[in-house]
Design brief:
alpha/beta, Spore Coat Polysaccharide Biosynthesis Protein SpsA, Chain A, 3-stranded antiparallel beta sheet
C-alpha cells in the first residue's frame, strides 16, 4: 500500500464514499469555503445578501426621499470600514468570537450552525511554535527486557503532551516519562506553553533517552484572559503542525496529558489503530467515566455527562488516530473553544461512527485515568541568602527548585525556614556557620 501524504493546504479535499449525509454536507461546505492561493479574501456574509445589505437600503432610501438622507452615506461607509478593518486585522479565532468568522455567526454547538464550524475546519494551521530541542535516536538499550531491535517493525506512537509552567510541571513530566520509558517505538512530543525554551526541560527530556521533540508553543495572547481559557490547544495545534511539516504519515497519534495515569496495555492497544480507535477514560466529570457504548462489537453511542450538542462527546485521552488516515484531510484542525476541542478535531478528519474501532476489551476496561494534581502556587520561604553559599546543600537545592518553579528562597518574604537538630529548631547561624 503506498504511503499517504498531506495534500497542499490549498488543494480541495478529495471526496470519499460516505453514507453519512451530515458528513457529506460538511465536506461540501468546506470545499465551497476553501479558497486557493491568490483568490480574493472572503467577504463579510451580510454584505452578500442584497435584500439585507445596508448599501441596498441606502440606495432605496436615496431614491425615495432624495438628498435628505444622503448624509447617512458617510456614517454607513464608516461602519463598513470598521467592520472590514476588524475582519482582516484580527486573527481567525478572534473573528469567530466576534461573529465574523468562517461562514456566519451562528452557533456551532449543533449541526444547524455548520457555517461557523466550517469556518473553523477549513482554515489551515498556522501556529506559533519554536523547536527547542530534539532527540531523534532511542538511547534505551532495552525495553521490557527485550533489545530495541526486536521492536523495529512496530508502528511509532507520536505521544503529544501539552504542558505549561507551574509548580507541578516538572514532577508530573518526570512521572509520565517513567511510564513512557517502558514503551518501545515512541516519539514524545512535549509542547510547552511558554514564549521561550526551557533549558532545564531540554536537559531533562534528553536524559530520559526517549526520542523526543520539545516545542515552545505559547497560547495566543488574546485567549489568555478568557474564562475558561483554551489551555493546551495551542500546544496540540503546534504538534499537528510539526507532524505536517515533516510529512509524517506512518504511525499513531495520541494526545496524552502530563497529569493522566496510563496502563501500559493502552500502548499495545492503540498501536493497532487503522483509522480511529476509542476507549473509556476514568475519572471524567459526574459519571466518573467517559467513553463509547459498544453493541455487538460496534460503537453505537457515547456515555458522557456533558453532551452540549457534541457529535463526539469523548475525552482527549480517549482516542488515537492513524496518521495515514489523518493525512487524507489537509485541513486537520482544533479550535480554541474549551470543551469542544475533541469534537471539532474528530469532525475535521471526517470521522464516521462505523469507522470507530473499540479498544480495551470492547470498551469494558479503563486503560487511562484523568487523574489531576491539585495545583498550588510556588512556595516562598525566608532563608537568608548568606546561608545559600557552598557551606551546605541548600544553595544548590533552592536554585534547582526555583528553576523547576517549585519553591524559592527569600531574605524577606515567606515563612521562616526552620532547621532542626535532635528534634529542636535552631538558628541558621548555629547550624550553617
Amino acid at each position: 500500500m503506498p504511503s499517504a501524504y498531506y495534500a497542499p493546504l490549498d488543494q480541495p479535499l478529495t471526496s470519499t464514499d460516505d453514507d453519512d449525509e451530515e458528513a457529506d454536507i460538511e465536506r461540501h461546505q468546506q470545499q465551497h469555503q476553501r479558497r486557493p492561493k491568490g483568490a480574493a479574501a472572503p467577504s463579510i456574509p451580510f454584505l452578500e445578501a442584497h435584500h439585507h445589505s445596508p448599501m441596498a437600503h441606502l440606495r432605496v432610501a436615496s431614491g425615495v426621499v432624495g438628498g435628505r438622507r444622503r448624509c447617512l452615506l458617510p456614517l454607513v461607509l464608516a461602519l463598513l470600514f470598521l467592520i472590514a478593518f476588524c475582519y482582516f486585522t484580527f486573527g481567525a479565532d478572534t473573528r469567530l468570537a466576534l461573529g465574523l468568522g468562517g461562514g456566519g455567526g451562528g452557533s456551532d454547538d449543533s449541526d444547524d450552525g455548520m457555517h461557523s464550524l466550517d469556518g473553523i475546519l477549513s482554515r489551515a494551521l498556522n501556529e506559533t511554535l519554536h523547536l527547542c530541542s530534539e532527540g531523534l535516536f532511542d538511547q534505551r538499550l532495552y525495553v521490557q527486557d527485550k533489545p530495541m531491535e526486536e521492536y523495529g517493525n512496530l508502528p511509532i506512537i507520536y505521544f503529544v503532551t501539552p504542558t505549561y509552567p507551574r509548580r507541578e510541571q516538572i514532577p508530573e513530566l518526570t512521572r509520565l516519562a517513567h511510564t513512557l520509558l517502558h514503551v518501545p517505538r515512541l516519539h514524545w512530543l512535549v509542547a510547552n506553553d511558554q514564549e521561550g525554551c526551557n533549558v532545564f526541560m531540554d536537559l531533562m527530556l534528553k536524559g530520559f533517552g526517549i526520542p523526543y521533540t520539545h516545542l515552545a508553543s505559547p497560547m495566543p495572547s488574546n485567549f489568555r484572559k478568557a474564562k475558561p481559557a483554551p489551555r493546551g490547544v495551542a500546544n496540540r495545534r503546534a504538534a499537528l503542525q510539526w507532524l505536517r511539516q515533516r510529512n509524517l504519515t506512518n504511525g499513531i497519534l495520541y494526545f496524552g496529558d502530563d497529569d493522566n495515569t496510563y496502563d501500559l496495555r493502552l500502548f499495545s492497544e492503540i498501536r493497532q489503530t487503522q483509522r480511529v480507535s476509542m476507549f473509556p477514560v476514568g475519572f471524567i466529570a459526574d459519571y466518573g467515566v467517559s467513553g463509547p457504548v459498544v453493541r455487538k462489537g460496534k460503537v453505537v453511542a457515547f456515555l458522557d455527562s456533558w453532551l452540549a450538542g457534541r457529535r463526539w462527546p469523548v475525552d482527549m485521552a480517549g482516542f488515537a488516530v492513524n496518521l495515514q488516515y489523518m493525512a487524507q484531510f489537509p485541513n486537520v484542525n482544533m479550535p480554541y473553544k474549551p470543551g469542544f476541542e475533541e469534537d471539532r478535531f474528530l469532525r475535521s478528519i471526517g470521522l464516521r461512527l462505523d469507522q470507530i474501532e473499540p479498544r480495551g476489551n470492547n470498551c469494558t476496561e479503563i486503560l487511562v485515568w484523568h487523574t489531576q494534581t491539585k495545583s498550588k502556587k510556588a512556595a516562598v520561604v525566608r532563608l537568608e541568602s548568606e546561608y545559600l553559599d557552598g557551606r551546605s546543600n541548600l544553595g544548590a537545592l533552592f536554585r534547582s527548585l526555583k528553576i523547576m518553579g517549585v519553591a524559592s528562597a527569600s531574605d524577606t518574604e515567606g515563612p521562616k525556614a526552620l532547621i532542626s537538630k535532635n528534634g529542636k529548631a535552631a538558628a541558621h547561624s548555629t547550624i550553617l556557620s
